[in-house]
Amino acid sequence: MVILSLLILNKAGGLIFQRDFNEGLKKLSSNDYLVLAGTFHGVHAITSRISPVRNSGGGLEVLESDRFRMQCFQTLTGTKFLIFAEPNQPNIDVVVKRVYELYADYVMKNPFYQIEMPIRCEAFERNLVAYIKPK
Amino acid sequence: MQRGDSLNSPFVPFSPNPSIQQGTPTSTPPLKHTLSSSTSSNLRYSSSRKSIYDRHLNRSQRSELSKASFAFLFGEMVQYAQKRVNGIADLEKKLNLHGYSIGQRLLELLLWREGRSAKRETRILGILQFITTTVYRSIFNKPADGLEKSRDNEDEYMLIDNDPMVNSYISVPKEMSQLNCAAFVAGIIEAVLDGCLFPGRVTAHSVPTEQLPAKTVFLIKFDESVIERESVLG
Amino acid sequence: MSATKAARVGEDVWKTRIDKVNAELVTLTYGSIVAQLCRDFEGDYLEVNKQLEKMGYNIGLRLIEDFLAKTNMGKCANFRETAETIAKVGFKVFLNITPTVANWTTDNKQFSLIFEENPLADFVELPDDGRAQNELWYSNMLCGVLRGTLEMVQMQVDAHFASDILRGNEVTEMRVTLVRIIDDELPPGED
């Protein structure tokens, strides 16, 4: 299972976490990532209303190309988890759920983390890396 | 160390030998509740429910709650304290005080539960083993990971916890790296020691290693009176 | 989802996905917090109530993510379902209790939670100073937790205690009212 990178967006669409898990990935500047996050947030909002079919659910969930697969999980609270993986990767749902749990544990339960602010929780990153790239 | 009155606690130091009481809290307020309630308590109790005195103390002995509940409560305790202190040492002191009040109550409960087999510890090793096994097991469901005596200082001992439960989800920001929220547990330990007449100071220190990033050492520094007594006892 | 299904989910999650700790530690920790507040505010119990509620609110904002991550619950269809979810899943998963949902108003916007047991208040007796029993709501943090969690899922509620065994009342009852649905930003999936 190859997860390439993870982005987490807060309710307002601000980028609060970004991490690559593979070498050789294209690195954007931190400003670019912020813009990317904000843009995605807007796109997500549009796609949640664009479908002509009634009750077709939330916004954009999967974006697949021949080079990567992006999956977006939005929680009921509006937080978005974006996972980038290799194409044709099964079971990304499992990964997303686990990342959400790690977020709930090591970010939410950290009294030094301010809500909606960028995530700088050492335990979160440690556990995340251990899960995604076990050695 | 005037703990008693600042905590409004029902703690009354017990010792058959008053000369050992040096170093223990000397001014402790009388039990406010029982003094007034024996004459004129105004407390109301519901007619159907019994009062807390009718419920058995062992009722909740094996009850469990989610670790998350503790984590959120503890986190809020830390946040509340942070707003009212200046600096890390102060914050650790506040956490220590919270732990202290819990330790006092816990000690009474544990000794009561041991019943007839409760042993009054008079030696340092004895009380430290009580803490590393009985006390630790009752709160954290596992004994402490290690106990060491300091080579350099006669009056210092170290209790080791490889992964303190209270720190499980906490990541201290880099600018506060000297803070260890296990000061809370240090307070519990300190209260148990004080209550068993081994006065001293307990502080928590992070000693992370590659394998154990959360490893914490509780440094226990006994008062001189304890060391003197220990040498007298041989 | 029905009450029985909610109960089953709560029981299931509690058994399989929750790390547990000694309840007495939590009880003592909560007690220490309340006692500290009473000292800090010098016996102004009304202020202590407010502070407890505020602390609960802060907790609620974070607790909701943990709740959602552990239970995988989707949106509730209506406020009645929300009530059952709170009582049978929420309280079960965090405090291992299942308060009863009762006393609905006819517009389905207000209900009560009746607590048979309250682990936060185990072995607590309020101070006998003539005021605490009239002014302090010992478990007020729970009201804030409800307010915070529901706000994060777009519901503005008011929660307050109507009675408390610690005060000599017959039951411990919390009254929860839906003030409004927050939809400045439409919840996902809605039209």
Summarize the structure in short:
The complex is a heterotrimer of chains A (135), B (234) and C (191). Chain A has 135 residues and is an alpha+beta fold.
Keywords:
heterotrimer; A: 135 residues; alpha+beta; Beta-Lactamase; five-stranded antiparallel beta sheet; globular; C: alpha+beta; Muramoyl-pentapeptide Carboxypeptidase, domain 2; four-stranded antiparallel beta sheet; 6 helices; 49% helix; disordered C terminus; Longin-like_dom_sf (chain A); ER-Golgi transport (chain A)
Describe, in plain words, how this protein is organized in 3D.
- The complex is a heterotrimer of chains A (135), B (234) and C (191).
- Chain A has 135 residues and is of the alpha+beta class.
- Helices cover 35% and strands 21% of the residues of chain A.
- In chain A, strands 2-1-5-4-3 form a five-stranded antiparallel sheet.
- In chain A, a hairpin with a 5-residue loop joins strand 4 (69-74) and strand 5 (80-85).
- Chain B is built from seven helices and five strands, in the order H-H-E-H-H-H-E-E-H-E-E-H.
- In chain B, a hairpin with a 6-residue loop joins strand 2 (146-149) and strand 3 (156-161).
- Chain C is α+β, with helices and mostly antiparallel strands.
- Chain C is 49% helix and 16% strand.
- Chain C has helices spanning 3-17, 23-40, 45-71, 79-95, 132-135, 140-152, and strands at 20-22, 100-102, 110-115, 155-163, 172-181.
- Chain C has a four-stranded antiparallel sheet, with helices on one face.
- In chain C, a hairpin with an 8-residue loop joins strand 4 and strand 5.
- In chain C, helix 1 runs parallel beside helix 4 (79-95).
- The radius of gyration of chain C is 17 Å and the shape is globular.
- Chains in contact: A-B, A-C, B-C.
- Chains B and C meet through helix 2, strand 1, helix 3, helix 4 and helix 5 of B and strand 1, helix 2, helix 3 and helix 4 of C.
- Chain C: Its main location: endoplasmic reticulum.
Strand and helix layout:
The complex is a heterotrimer of chains A (135), B (234) and C (191).
Chain A: E1 3-9, E2 15-20, H1 30-50, E3 62-64, E4 69-74, E5 80-85, H2 92-106, H3 122-132
Antiparallel strand pairs in A: 1-2, 1-5, 3-4, 4-5
Helix pairs in contact in A: 2-3
Chain B: H1 4-7, H2 32-40, E1 64-66, H3 67-83, H4 88-114, H5 124-140, E2 146-149, E3 156-161, H6 183-195, E4 200-206, E5 216-222, H7 224-232
Antiparallel strand pairs in B: 2-3, 3-5, 4-5
Helix pairs in contact in B: 4-6
Chain C: H1 3-17, E1 20-22, H2 23-40, H3 45-71, H4 79-95, E2 100-102, E3 110-115, H5 132-135, H6 140-152, E4 155-163, E5 172-181
Antiparallel strand pairs in C: 2-3, 3-5, 4-5
